[in-house]
Write a structure and sequence with these properties.
This protein has helices at 2-29, 75-87, 107-115, 202-207, 273-335; strands at 91-95, 100-103, 120-125, 128-129, 137-140, 145-148, 157-165, 169-181, 187-190, 195-198, 213-218, 221-227, 233-236, 245-253, 256-268. It has 336 residues and is α+β, with helices and mostly antiparallel strands. Mean pLDDT is 76; it is low at 24-66.
């Protein structure tokens, strides 16, 4: 009875294992192996100045603080901001891993604070809320200075300092264009893959709509020249070896020119058919090996239980036969 029950359990387990293995294979074959060259960053803020640097606009949901109003930004301040930004030209190019500092403390910020003492000041990077890495970034709230201790190529782009009052209005008060150069490639792609590069010109579209001109260069040759609104990104559907090299994007307005994007692209040979199969099946092989090991372990456990159960039954049967033989001999002796 014990042996039959264990055998039935083994059969059920093997059927379940085959089903699970089939599900794992089906799921793995439809998955993609992707390479992510972007690094996730975390926000570092402490103390009473936490609201000075806002990493996300979800702060709009907070309760209203004393001193805040929904009064619009005066026309005089907007005009002063436009005049200041029209003459601002903060840009620099450095080599990694050098650092840089960005300060947002000028007459314009003081003018806004005088009118709106509870206004929030925050930074944006390439049109998105700035998230800083505490291991290589330092923020000084008293002078609104952001220092990147160790810069990397992915830190290149446009940094905008903005102010807002209860998110009823928002005003750019300072911006910097930083390019972090590196002799090593910043983007690796394989032949026939798609390549999309961003120019990071959102701020200029916002500040000077229709006034800025955008130019893309590939190894010094112009590949696009037009209005910034029409060429924020450039896409190559099927990249080739000739598409490798240095890509740069420039935003021009009047006599000012900013390099807002830089990419050193390395094009690797296309993946062969066998490499694709291996890349798609390596996780399947590992899953199958794990399932096989579990099946082998459980089979060994069931076999051991069945073996020792059978040995016990044999011993019991032999014991009963011996006892029966002794009883027969005893009865025979008594009859004689």
């Amino acid at each position: 009875m014990v042996v039959s029950s264990c055998k039935r359990k083994m059969v059920r387990f093997l059927v379940l294992s085959i089903y699970l293995w089939t599900a794992v294979v089906a799921k793995t074959n439809h998955s993609k192996v992707e390479m992510d060259f972007e690094k996730k960053q975390s926000t570092f803020l402490t103390g009473a100045y936490q609201n000075r640097l806002i990493a996300s606009k979800t702060v709009i949901r907070r309760s209203k603080r004393r001193g805040e109003t929904n009064e619009p930004l005066p026309v005089l301040i907007r005009a002063a901001a436009l005049d200041y930004l029209n003459h601002s030209n903060h840009q620099s190019s450095i080599m990694a891993p050098s650092g840089f500092s960005l300060r947002c403390d000028n007459n314009l910020t003081r003018m806004v604070y005088n009118k709106f003492p509870m206004a929030d000041l925050f930074w944006e990077f390439n049109g998105r809320p700035l998230h800083v890495d505490p291991s290589r970034t330092w923020y000084e709230p008293l002078v609104n200075e952001l220092t990147m201790l160790v810069a990397e190529p992915e830190d290149s782009g446009v940094y905008a300092c903005k102010m807002a009052q209860n998110w009823y209005w928002e005003q750019t008060v300072e911006f910097y264009v930083i390019q972090v150069q590196s002799p090593k490639p910043t983007l690796y792609l394989r032949e026939w893959e798609a390549m999309t590069l961003r120019c990071n010109s959102e701020l200029f579209d916002e500040l000077f709509p229709g006034s800025s001109n955008l130019t893309w260069l590939h190894n010094g040759a112009v590949v696009y020249n037009g209005v910034a609104l029409e060429g924020e990104t450039i896409t190559v559907d099927h990249i080739k070896q000739a598409d490798g090299g240095v890509w740069k994007c420039f935003v021009t307005m009047s006599e000012r020119k900013w390099q807002t994007a830089h990419a050193n692209v390395s094009v690797l040979p296309a993946i062969s058919f066998m490499e694709k199969i291996m890349s798609q099946t390596k996780y399947t092989v590992a899953a199958v090996a794990l399932v096989a090991a579990c099946c082998a372990l459980l089979f060994f456990i069931c076999w051991s239980l069945a073996y020792w159960s059978d040995r016990r039954d044999q011993k019991e049967t032999l014991y009963f036969e011996e006892q029966l033989q002794l009883l027969k001999e005893k009865i025979t002796d008594e009859n004689m």
